[in-house]
Amino acid sequence: MPKITTLLFDCDNTLVLSETLAFEACAELANEILTSEGIPDRYTGHALFTEFVGQNFRGMMSSLQEKYSLTLPPATFDSYVTREEDQVIGKIRAALEPCVGADAELARLADAGQFEMAVVSSSAGRRVEASVDKVGMDKYFPRNRIFSAATSLEKPTSKPDPAIYLHACKVMGKQPAECVAIEDSKNGALSAVRAGIHTIGYVGSAEPEQQEELKAVLKQAGADPIMVDWAEFSACLEHIEKLP
């Protein structure tokens, strides 16, 4: 197989513990939409996370519209997307923390200088930038190495669409086969695998009682190997580099 030159990291719940904060804000807006449309259902952040993990807010909104047979005017749709970005960024700047062990592993990789590194996320670029800034990971990921399915593409999309991974490879001048992605969700893993990228699954941000189930989900999506802790990353990478 080609020599691995590039590491492509998902952001939310892979590098930073942002999903709980984000889905709290998403639930508030989703419930506002449902109320305005006279629909009695209500979501908690946890319920939204369970149903839509790995999707950005734009993708989640599209799924909700399909589920409830709604058609929001484009201007209204876009206004909710902007409001969600603002609310999540506010929560991130107040309370975001890195995933356990992620910063130490990034520091080791940066010191070694063996791989190019980038963030490839479904989330809006402003949110990803706020996330890496808050936890001090901006030194590893300059703005030109942050790729967002919501804002970096000519046509916004969301994982599991592989478009954002293919875009990142094109911009960085890489072939998918020389890259490794790190993903914590089914949609994220599918996005990378469909782009032809070797994918390591990460379950360390999940609650301990949910990790075995998530391992199975990620394996089914094509991620292999799976790691529970960032301390396992080197061994996972070696596993991939030894593949025929």
TrEMBL record:
Gene3D superfamilies with a match to the protein in the record: HAD superfamily/HAD-like (3.40.50.1000), Putative phosphatase, domain 2 (1.10.150.240)
InterPro entries from the UniProt entry: Beta-PGM-like, HAD-like_sf, HAD-SF_hydro_IA, HAD_sf, PGP-like_dom2
Cofactor(s) named in the record: Mg(2+)
Keywords, sorted A to Z: Hydrolase, Magnesium, Metal-binding
Protein name, per record: HAD superfamily hydrolase
PANTHER family per record: 6-PHOSPHOGLUCONATE PHOSPHATASE (PTHR46193:SF10)
GO molecular function terms noted in the UniProt entry: metal ion binding; phosphatase activity
